[in-house]
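G., the chain you wanted modeled:
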Amino acid sequence: MNGDTRSGEDVSSLFDLEGKHFIVLGAGQGIGAACARGLRSLGAAVMSVDREAGPAESIAGELGGPWLAVDATSEAGIVEAIAAAKDAFGRIDGAVDVIGRGSRVAIEDLDPAAWQAEFDVNLGHAYLLGRHLGPILAEQGDGVLIFISSVVSEYGTHVTPAYHAAKAALVSWVRSLAVTYGPSGVRANAVSPGGVLTERMKGHWEASGASPAEVLKPTALKRLAEPVDVAAAVAFLASPAARMITGQALVVDAGTTVRDPFYGDSQDETLV
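Predicted structure as tokens:
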């Protein structure tokens, strides 16, 4: 039994990231930009990495930190991002990987190239980041790796099956990173959002003709998350407040996955 109970520790101090240095992959917009802002608001220095120079430079200018335009889905891009952060900060304390997207390709149309492309954009970079940054953090004796998965990792679909499979694999990869590097003091976790009101998702729902009522129906809270809600979960996992949490996927879905799949919102007791 650990004799250090930390009984006098101030809980508020556990949310302090002052003096810490993070990389955010996909920081140029949406959830990535919100995560970069969230880490900075707790005191961390942030390197904003994005495929496009304009968005990366814009968020970095807002946060007063360095930026890099690079394809972080490639090994060369990941290596460059890590090297740039080390040059800028001298030390890296963690990374948040927000890269990902889903393609609407049904199984009967899912050829090997489409399948591989989905895994490359949703999982390949997570593998590369863990493989290259994990040992560096382990050698330091601490550090944090956080990945954005999705609640779709929990269920099947006929709409975006490769995306669902890749996100499920991402959660498994996070658990393996946690087990591998945990003894060296490194934590690895995922955040699994449900529907989030990003500009891209708003466009997707509008294009599909989905009404607000249809989008909200699966949620228990009857509202959708904003990017800042995902960023808050990421900031928590990045902070010492989550120092005993690793290998987990923190669900931020307004209660979508806890609703009764058979009866939903029915109040009719005769159905039970």
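The chain has one domain: 19-255.

Shout if anything looks off.
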